[in-house]
Amino acid sequence: MKNPGMNGMNSLDKEALDYHSAYPAGKVEVVSSKLCSTEKALSLAYSPGVAAPCKEIAKDPDKVYDYTTKGNLVGVVTNGTAVLGLGDIGPLAGKPVMEGKGVLFKQFANINVFDIEMKTATTEEFIAAVKALEPTFGGINLEDIKAPECFEIEERLKKEMNIPVFHDDQHGTAIISGAALLNACIVTGKKIEKIKLVMNGAGAASVSCAKIFISLGVNPKNLLMCDSKGVIYKGRTEGMNKYKQEFAVETKDRSLLDAMKGADVFIGLSVAGAVTAEMLKVMADKPIVFAMANPDPEIDPMTAKKARPDVIMATGRSDYPNQVNNVLGFPFIFRGALDVRASQINEEMKLAAVHAIAKLAREDVPENVSAAYGGATFSFGPEYIIPKPFDSRVLLWVTPAVAKAAMDSGVARKPITDFGAYRDRLEALQGVKTGFVRSVIHRIMDQAKEKNLLLPRIVFPEGDSSKVIKAVHRAVEEKFMIPVLLGSPAEIKRRIAEFGFDNLSNVEIINPADHPKFQEYVQNLYEKRKRKGMLLRESQRLLRNPDYFAAMMVDSGDVDGMVTGATQNYADCVRPILQIIGPGRRKTASGLNIVMFKDRLLLFTDTAVNINPTAQQIASIAIHASRVAEYFGIEPRIAMLSYTNFTSHGESPAKMLEAAEIVRKNYPHLKVDGEMQADTAVNPDIVKRIFPFCEIKDGANILVFPNLDSGNIAYKLVQQLGGGEVIGPFLMGVKKAANIMQRTCTVDDIFNTVVMTALEAQALKDNQSTKQV
What angle do CA 276, 278, 282 make, to 5 degrees? Predict the structure, then answer.
């Protein structure tokens, strides 16, 4: 039977219902963070092992943060009396929103959440119930509670609990709109202390916004708050309460239209359609309008732009510029508060978040943010005054600022002693790859200091590529390498200026044909290749190709490494490297990908160079990969992969068996076995049950593939479908540091390749006789 409630439903509603009802229903689940699939693990997780942490906590209550998830667990609590724009729909109907809030906490700040929907009859009941939950949580996020009860609930709980309590509907909107207001004033040239600001709506969010705006410099006499009865003025009695009374001012204005005359700023936290085009027309020049009613704003942005082309507009919607989205605030504020074990979230911490968000919006926007929004570009200005919700840098800007404010204001019980290390830890929350790359950068910098090494100089043949310039800008900001860009100096300088990258203003730019060593390089290339059919004229022609010129710079020792491939075919890029730099003696050039999961790191090879290598070549490739593992402190466990387990029937299995025997004979200390299937290689349980004779007992960490097809397909499938984070491919087996990217690479991919190339170049400079990375 058709549900009559479905009649007239729009497509988004239908899609949302399908999304939430798909098995399993809802949006959250509880997953164990520890192994619990063996009898031994179960004895540690529960009885009898669990008694040990219980006894430690009983002796010292603070140990609860060491042995349980309390320090990273927030309760999202509601009574369902003011759910989104839906009103008092009750705790059950509010549960989908609370689950969604938990998803956002986890997605953006890796904070675990239990959503709690409370069926309470009075404010006192609600307060008592939340207080009773204090042993469970590290913080409480109050959500969707109507005013004025929400004010009393938060005030009481902050006073009576010793963990952070934060009503996001009040403060989240205030923090984000505060940051947007600071930047809107910068864009329009208005002085915040002189603006006339009108607010429509006098609920929880409005009151908190007004307080934040005053803290940021707005003159209270110039702030007019309106509700459904009109302007809140001194002497008004109808519909007043103590929270509204705080914002009553001396004024003759009585209606919203009266208040809007000459106003610089309008803040809407009310209902759709509350503002008309006529109201905007009476505002001051360059009006700032934040119409934040959900789901429909107080005035449609297109209508506002038509009435006032000079307007700076913000809404709560994602389909318009300048979305005031609370997700820019609460995950990162709680992250900072939890990490210093703050007893509360105070005004200093909120203001620190405001200023951090505002400052971030004035920074250059990286490519990965644009990619998350369909390739749209963003730069500080009228249509970009606050960061986008999917800007991963918000965690790195807001969280440390909040943590430091907690420390400075005296509410932090576990102060951070090293903010550099703390930032690295936060960065690692964004993915295993991010944390790994950060550790490599530290390694480069530490070794340069300890061994008094010069920073590696890396040449980029595609110096005029926008992606390359952006990656180089980021690398120079990190100060772990020195770039050399090849290409037209005029074009490269134009692009650098266009991006506003001041740190690249003095970067070395070379036009190959104009370089003083051009003829010397021509002669050197000719000498290298004359017995392979190259004529002097061809050498001269090839050296005008930036990839050939870059390879010659590396081979001659004029730079320490090269990175290419962002705009070209892999084969075209690898050819000059192999012809000029070449593989080491009795070495095989090959491609290596580092594939990272939450609990392990794997090396995949060969993924880029050899179409169908011989057993001897495969053995050489495996040995090179083992040196990479050893360089990172990993004991190599090499699996020679095939489609069979230890039978060697067929050409490919026989080849892989022979390769394993070659490695074992020449390097008996290495753990190597094969041929074997991929599941056997990575699953120790299969080895234990079926192949106890296998030399690899704990799972392989180096996977060597029989041909290029299998290696390339495997790492790309793992990357796209298996949840693995991939860096590479890197070129192993050549004499100097030279790496080639895929043409599909992003700025992040280029940056990661630059980091690894710099490490490799540094290792070679430090008297490393073989290619390590």
Answer: 120
